[in-house]
């Protein structure tokens, strides 16, 4: 390992990361590729916690706008994250990576409940631990779930895998002169409302000194590269 700054990381994957061109919510080929990235990181010696979102299947806020009660819609969204977690677990197992899924909403026939000390033990044994159902409460997002689990599991950083290669001072799709930050302060992200994660997640990372590394997960080999300190990313710190 050439970058000793991070040993244990939490990888946050939006549900959309599992989608393919064909519009499948969980594309097996895309999911397998993401699993391969996780395997490479594991084999490079990093300890990995993963939090998966559910936006590819169900988003509470959008459903609430169409008339479903917000809390109910959010519980439906949390169930969607469990489906994604099982898909990622399956893809990892198919390439020989030992994993456990822990859900914030207990579902004993499907996966383990979230138990911090047990998760710790899994990591010590070299397993990848996938956390599902966010924080387990409505009116939150899986970004908050990721920040919370990163703090609880004493992760050295939260890696946010997106489809852009970092945080820009303006929308790079609209503003040709937009510049990518190498590093940016939590306070700048919050004050300028830069689209990194929701504000409560950023505040939780700030209060617990957890850097947020924003990088492009769609680029093959990028997770391992960024972990080694080589790839392109923005660090919020
Ligand atoms: N959700 C929730 N509480 C949580 C995490 C998620 O209510 O702690 C619900 C919420 O409705 C959200 C949905 O689950 O819209 C899917 O999660 P998210 O939108 O964070 O997924 P992502 O955008 O990362 O794919």
From TrEMBL:
<comment type="subunit">
    <text>Homohexamer.</text>
</comment>
<comment type="pathway">
    <text>Pyrimidine metabolism; CTP biosynthesis via de novo pathway; UDP from UMP (UMPK route): step 1/1.</text>
</comment>
<comment type="similarity">
    <text>Belongs to the UMP kinase family.</text>
</comment>
<keyword id="KW-0547">Nucleotide-binding</keyword>
<feature type="domain" description="Aspartate/glutamate/uridylate kinase">
    <location>
        <begin position="7"/>
        <end position="216"/>
    </location>
</feature>
<feature type="binding site">
    <location>
        <position position="168"/>
    </location>
    <ligand>
        <name>ATP</name>
    </ligand>
</feature>
<dbReference type="GO" id="GO:0033862">
    <property type="term" value="F:UMP kinase activity"/>
</dbReference>
<keyword id="KW-0808">Transferase</keyword>
<dbReference type="Pfam" id="PF00696">
    <property type="entry name" value="AA_kinase"/>
</dbReference>
<feature type="binding site">
    <location>
        <begin position="12"/>
        <end position="15"/>
    </location>
    <ligand>
        <name>ATP</name>
    </ligand>
</feature>
<dbReference type="InterPro" id="IPR001048">
    <property type="entry name" value="Asp/Glu/Uridylate_kinase"/>
</dbReference>
<keyword id="KW-0067">ATP-binding</keyword>
<feature type="binding site">
    <location>
        <begin position="135"/>
        <end position="142"/>
    </location>
    <ligand>
        <name>UMP</name>
    </ligand>
</feature>
<feature type="binding site">
    <location>
        <position position="74"/>
    </location>
    <ligand>
        <name>UMP</name>
    </ligand>
</feature>
<feature type="binding site">
    <location>
        <position position="54"/>
    </location>
    <ligand>
        <name>UMP</name>
    </ligand>
</feature>
<dbReference type="InterPro" id="IPR036393">
    <property type="entry name" value="AceGlu_kinase-like_sf"/>
</dbReference>
<keyword id="KW-0665">Pyrimidine biosynthesis</keyword>
<feature type="binding site">
    <location>
        <position position="59"/>
    </location>
    <ligand>
        <name>ATP</name>
    </ligand>
</feature>
<dbReference type="InterPro" id="IPR015963">
    <property type="entry name" value="Uridylate_kinase_bac"/>
</dbReference>
<keyword id="KW-0963">Cytoplasm</keyword>
<feature type="binding site">
    <location>
        <position position="171"/>
    </location>
    <ligand>
        <name>ATP</name>
    </ligand>
</feature>
<feature type="binding site">
    <location>
        <position position="162"/>
    </location>
    <ligand>
        <name>ATP</name>
    </ligand>
</feature>
<protein>
    <recommendedName>
        <fullName>Uridylate kinase</fullName>
        <ecNumber>2.7.4.22</ecNumber>
    </recommendedName>
</protein>
<feature type="binding site">
    <location>
        <position position="55"/>
    </location>
    <ligand>
        <name>ATP</name>
    </ligand>
</feature>
<comment type="function">
    <text>Catalyzes the reversible phosphorylation of UMP to UDP.</text>
</comment>
<dbReference type="InterPro" id="IPR011817">
    <property type="entry name" value="Uridylate_kinase"/>
</dbReference>
<keyword id="KW-0418">Kinase</keyword>
């Amino acid at each position: 390992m050439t970058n000793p700054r991070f040993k244990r990381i939490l990888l946050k994957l939006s549900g959309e990361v599992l989608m393919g061109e064909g519009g499948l919510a969980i594309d097996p080929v895309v999911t397998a590729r993401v699993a391969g990235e996780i395997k490479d990181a594991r084999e490079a010696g990093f300890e990995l916690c993963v939090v998966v979102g559910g936006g590819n299947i169900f988003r509470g806020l959008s459903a609430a706008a169409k008339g479903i009660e917000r809390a109910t819609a959010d519980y439906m969204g949390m169930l969607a994250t469990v489906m994604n977690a099982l898909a990622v677990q399956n893809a990892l197992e198919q390439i020989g990576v030992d994993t456990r899924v822990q859900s914030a909403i207990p579902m004993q026939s499907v996966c383990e409940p979230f138990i911090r000390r047990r998760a710790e033990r899994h990591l010590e044994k070299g397993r990848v631990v996938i956390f599902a159902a966010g924080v387990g409460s409505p009116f939150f997002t899986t970004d908050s779930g990721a920040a919370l689990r990163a703090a609880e599991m004493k992760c050295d950083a939260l890696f946010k895998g997106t489809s852009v290669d970092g945080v820009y001072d303006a929308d790079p799709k609209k503003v040709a002169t937009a510049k990518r930050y190498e590093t940016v302060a939590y306070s700048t992200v919050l004050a300028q409302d830069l689209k990194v994660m929701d504000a409560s997640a950023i505040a939780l990372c700030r209060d617990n000194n957890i850097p947020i590394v924003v990088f492009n997960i769609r680029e093959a080999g990028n997770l391992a590269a960024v972990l080694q300190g080589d790839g392109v990313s923005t660090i919020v710190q």
